[in-house]
Amino acid sequence: MNNLLYILQYLTIGVVAGLSMGIIGIGAGLVTLPLLIYSGMHIEGAVACILLMQLLPQSLPAVLVYSKSEHIDYNISMLVILGSVIGTLLGSLIIYYDLISEKTTYKLLTIVIIITAIVFTKRYLL
Asked: Domain-by-domain residue ranges, the chain?
């Protein structure tokens, strides 16, 4: 692939994910992961990219804006962050030690996307 097209492809994925995160709070799992997989990345590489993306660069600017508008409940957020750290560590270890296959990982992703779509469709579109 042409180097410029390669750069534009992944830059566009990042912009779309960032817009989605800033507007509706969803970007990594439901937006970025499928786009990265569709671009040719394996699911493990896509997940690693997303974790790196969320580490600081993606979240910090939005957190600063949302904190100015006083939309952040820090007590609840800290509990969710703690749970997320535990869950992310456990999930990473499951992948690292090959406790589930790559095919099972894709199946889990598909199930989560379908359930999320059904719940939100029922709640907000019907």
From this structure: 1-72
